Every structure is written in C-alpha cells, then in structure tokens.
Amino acid sequence: xxxxxxxxxxxxxxxxxxxxxxxxxxxxxxxxxxxxxxxxxxxxxxxxxxxxxxxxxxxxxxxxxxxxxxxxxxxxxxxxxxxxxxxxxxxxxxxxxxxxxxxxxxxxxxxxxxxxxxxxxxxxxxxxxxxxxxxxxxxxxxxxxxxxxxxxxxxxxxxxxxxxxxxxxxxxxxxx
Amino acid sequence: xxxxxxxxxxxxxxxxxxxxxxxxxxxxxxxxxxxxxxxxxxxxxxxxxxxxxxxxxxxxxxxxxxxxxxxxxxxxxxxxxxxxxxxxxxxxxxxxxxxxx
Lengths: 176, 101
Hints:
The complex is a heterodimer of chains A (176) and B (101). By secondary structure, chain A is mainly alpha-helical. Chain A is built from seven helices and no strands. The model of chain A has no long low-confidence stretch (mean pLDDT 86). Chain B has 101 residues and is mostly helical. Chains A and B meet through helix 1, helix 2, helix 3, helix 4 and helix 5 of A and helix 1, helix 2 and helix 3 of B.
C-alpha cells in the first residue's frame, strides 16, 4: 500500500463524511461549510490524479465563488437558524430507500467491470499548457458557445431577480 | 490492493447517491441546490479519474465545461429562489405544491 493509496483513502473518507454532513446538518450554514470541505477533498483527488489546473479551478470557482453566493443568499434571507420544517418520517425513509436502491443497482452493474490500473506516476496532461492547447484547438467552438451561455445566464439572473415593474404595480393599485 | 478504476467508480457512485438522498429528504430549496452541486462534482471526479487512466485531456476539458454550466445554473437558480422568498417569505419547497392547482 503506497502513499497514493493512503492519500486516496483519507481523501475519500473526508469527502464521504462531509457529504453526509451536508445532507444531515440542520443549519444551512453548516451544510455550506461541509460542502466546501467536500470540494476541498475532491480538489485533493484532482491533485492526486495530476489535474492541477482543475484542482485550482475547482477551489476558485466552487469553494470561492459558488459557495460564497450560497452563503450570501442564506445570510440575506436570515435562514441561519435551524427552523426548517422537516419532511415526514415516511417520506424521509422513502427518500433514503430510493437513493440506496439506486446505489445498489449501479453497484451491481459496475461490480463486474474490469478494473483498470492507474498509472501512479506523474503525467503532463493536467497542466495548463496542455489543457490550453486542447481547449483552443479542439474545443474552441464549445468554448465560444459557453460564453454565450454565460451571457444569457447573466441577463436571465438580472431579469428574474429585479423588482417588479413600477408600471405594473401602478396598474395593480388602480385595480384595487 | 492498489487503487484502480473500480475504487473511483465506487467513490463517485457513493457521492452521487448521497446527493440524490439529500435532494429527496430535505425541504429547503437551497440545500437541494447544494445536493445537485454534489452530484455534479461526483461526475467530475469520475471524468478526471478516467482522464488519468486513459491519458487523455478531453475529459478534463469536459469537467471545465461542466463547471461553466454549474456556475450559470447557480446564478439563475439562486435568483429564482430569491424571487420565491420575496413572494412567499420562505424557501420551503412544499409551498410550491400550489403551482399544480
């Protein structure tokens, strides 16, 4: 059992236990913190697999941007008290059973898969040099399209999030 | 036993199932969103593992694009949740039951 395996097991234990913390903790702020820890463990896996660029992007984008957005929304709505109404015991049990059944079905499907060896030596493919070359030659069209997606998501978020039209409110007042 | 592809399959399957369970048992819309992020990350982990096994950079670019889509999705989704909170003063998804009437 080499150093690779030991780090793999430690990171996996952290990732799975923090993921359980996300869905089991009552306070939404604690859930966000557990999810950030899960992302850090997954970034550790990326570094272990020589995907350094993705590890850094994962920390910056997920832990740095997305989770801060979540925290903003939670703080803005003052949800950091554990007053969330719970689903009924039966519904929770059904949820756990359906998730567990999905787990077992896919587990049975991949149990017989032929295990493939992982080359534990360092490789160059995850470095930004190589990824940039592939991104701007082979994947240049999806890259440009994703910029359009970003623009539309940005406009959509602003349109959805802005206050109601004052004109419309005036009409409602007239109706009242 | 050295770590091989099956270990990564099991790990991502476990994370994905935890995400599914969380989305099913919680009522807070924000937590359900976070569970969706967890599922996306489980898939990302598997893509990177197979990228390492086959020595191919394409899968890592796919992870990159999944992160792009996740960021866009979170921006729109949180805007929807904020609007919902403004209307009904709650993020409880059971209140959305009234959409079916």
